[in-house]
């Protein structure tokens, strides 16, 4: 009698599943949200180092790219990327940023199951600008967030504030 | 006559392949190498902001974790993580760091094909410290590199030096 567990062969060969990638991204987004919360209101839109953009602008980029990416990831119909939209105007307070952040978190969760399994390997031109497989573009979004959040950690440290722990992200 | 291309069904369902993950990691490592090259020798081991570690220490962590991870990723036998080993002692010049970096690049390429396809989903405790699936640990290494490199970008900007372009990484 053959009583070994018959795993789905695809499950034995995947690096990570779409659900795990979603959890990975949302884990990073949760950490970035805690970074925004920790950031002093009076410095969020103004403080910077080395001629760089303030934290608000770094977060704006990350937030709006994620927001506007979802439709294209699913359908291949890409809007032109805009740094602020009717649905999500440029925030002028930290609370507005956090509210937009939470809206995008829900949007990603809602759109994600609509990504067809074959879609991750399809080559597309995101926002008419970023050409490559969809998995590559999704990692670009995630990596860009990590990159800018790391920069905001330095801003925070020079303001004398301890950032949230980098490793503190839930697993899938 | 059925003449549509019969793709391997697993290839239609994967987010990314092990080869693509390797290329993703090495693409980031290539960018980090250019960051190290761009960093002024006289500041590499000393300059910092906000009481943080200098660039050399951030890079040391990234380099040694990658170096010492490979054996465990493949076999499940983890060394204790050490910030400097006999094979790879603590560097005292930027050129030594670059040489170690290149050695680790070759090591990752050499070990990678030995990772069994099922291994990415196996739960392990990397270095006896980081518990989770292997894919998760590999992303931890990559993300930690992006995080610290982003911090080094700020150091560089405050030194008046333009860092290499973040998006300039080859695709798989």
From TrEMBL, chains A, B:
<comment type="similarity">
    <text>Belongs to the DinB family.</text>
</comment>
<dbReference type="InterPro" id="IPR034660">
    <property type="entry name" value="DinB/YfiT-like"/>
</dbReference>
<feature type="binding site">
    <location>
        <position position="148"/>
    </location>
    <ligand>
        <name>a divalent metal cation</name>
    </ligand>
</feature>
<dbReference type="GO" id="GO:0046872">
    <property type="term" value="F:metal ion binding"/>
</dbReference>
<dbReference type="InterPro" id="IPR007837">
    <property type="entry name" value="DinB"/>
</dbReference>
<protein>
    <submittedName>
        <fullName>Damage-inducible protein DinB</fullName>
    </submittedName>
</protein>
<keyword id="KW-0479">Metal-binding</keyword>
<dbReference type="Pfam" id="PF05163">
    <property type="entry name" value="DinB"/>
</dbReference>
């Amino acid at each position: 009698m053959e009583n070994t567990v018959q795993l789905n062969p695809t499950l034995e060969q995947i690096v990570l599943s779409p659900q795990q990638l979603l959890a990975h991204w949302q884990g990073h987004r949760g950490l970035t949200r805690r970074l925004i919360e920790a950031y002093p209101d009076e410095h969020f839109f103004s403080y910077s180092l080395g001629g760089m953009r303030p934290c608000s602008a770094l977060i704006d980029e990350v937030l709006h790219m994620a927001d506007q990416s979802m439709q294209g990831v699913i359908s291949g119909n890409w809007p032109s990327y805009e740094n602020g939209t009717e649905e999500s105007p440029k925030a002028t307070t930290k609370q507005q940023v956090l509210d937009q952040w939470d809206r995008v978190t829900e949007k990603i969760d809602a759109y994600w199951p609509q990504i067809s399994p074959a879609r991750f390997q399809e080559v597309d031109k995101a926002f008419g600008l970023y050409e490559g497989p969809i998995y590559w573009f999704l990692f670009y979004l995630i990596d860009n967030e990590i990159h800018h959040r790391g920069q905001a950690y330095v801003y925070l440290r020079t303001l004398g504030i301890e950032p949230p722990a980098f490793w503190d992200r839930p697993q899938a």
